[in-house]
Amino acid sequence: MATISKRQLDETLAAFETTVSGADATVKLKDDKLFERLKTFKETTWFAKSDDLSAPVCARYGWINRGLETLYCPTCENTLVCEIPAEASPEEVLAKSKEYRDNLLTAHGESCPWAIHHLDDTAYRLPLSSPAHTIQAFRNRYKALSQHPPSIPKIVFNESQAGRSVNVDLLHQNLHVDGDESEELTRSCILLALFGWEFPNEQATDFLQCRLCARIVGLWNYDHIVTLTDADSADRRKRIKVAQDISVELPSHFDVLWEHRSYCPWICTPPGSGQQKLGWIATLDTVLSAGKPNRLLAHMPPPIPKVTRTTTALESA
Ligand SMILES: [Zn+2]
Ligand SMILES: [Zn+2]
């Protein structure tokens, strides 16, 4: 008899649990409080730590980042300083991070609930959801983005770094969204939405945010698609700068992959989380398989099981 693993069971149950709530469908961490803690970790105050001491790990142990290399527990109000000298070798960073990780539990106050309990590895992952929910959430991200053309930055999507090509036209077709946007605008919105990027809300369309790694990026530094005159002048400025050999240049295009934090479930599979595929690949596969002509399959004869015929002792007798 075929057995079903716990993971398969979870995924099957999740498909029934999640209801497709149309305009509300979204992809976010299951635990809102975990996300709120994660938001406090900034590149300027939490850096040069190994995976043992990444922001999601500390947040799973109840800590927020308050001040330079400092963790703070809002429940017991204890702090834990995790200094790693800038000149530390990679081996020292690993050793130090491991040492601090042991303190993530013990540094809480005696009566703090975090001293005996923390969220396990599975708390930080792409949330389980049904294909219908995944597609609806993608469609919602796309629609919201495409309604604000002046906000959309020029984007970079490097297929060889991503390890997978994307047929934007096919995705657009499978999402069943109409619109008369330009080809470049459609492509940008599709790829931003595929990688989980969205406006924080209707009013804050000058930012893109990720609801899994809590990255928020201001869009004013990037070249935009729609404001042609500005884009032209930006291109010109850039050419002039290149000509003058000025080496420091802000990126003019938004990289849909690398703007996420390195631990983001959209672009990696967090260790121990049970997540099988990178978030964007899982989304891509779901939308593509939803567009496959299943109706045709219904009229096809069932596949013939492949039998390797061997002569048994009984037959040869
Ligand atoms: Zn505590
Ligand atoms: Zn992210």
TrEMBL record:
State the coiled-coil residue ranges. Answer: none
As for subcellular location, the record says: Nucleus
Annotated NuBaID C-terminal domain ranges read 190-274
One GO molecular-function entry: zinc ion binding
Which UniProt keyword terms apply here? Metal-binding, Nucleus, Zinc, Zinc-finger
Judging by the UniProt lineage, the source's domain of life is Eukaryota
All copies of the C3HC-type domain together span 31-153
Keyword Iron-sulfur belongs to the record: no
Query: What would be one Pfam family of this protein?
Result: zf-C3HC
A cellular component term (GO) from this record?
A: nucleus
- Membrane-spanning residues where? none
**What InterPro entries would the database entry show?**
NuBaID_C, NuBaID_N
The protein in question is named: C3HC-type domain-containing protein
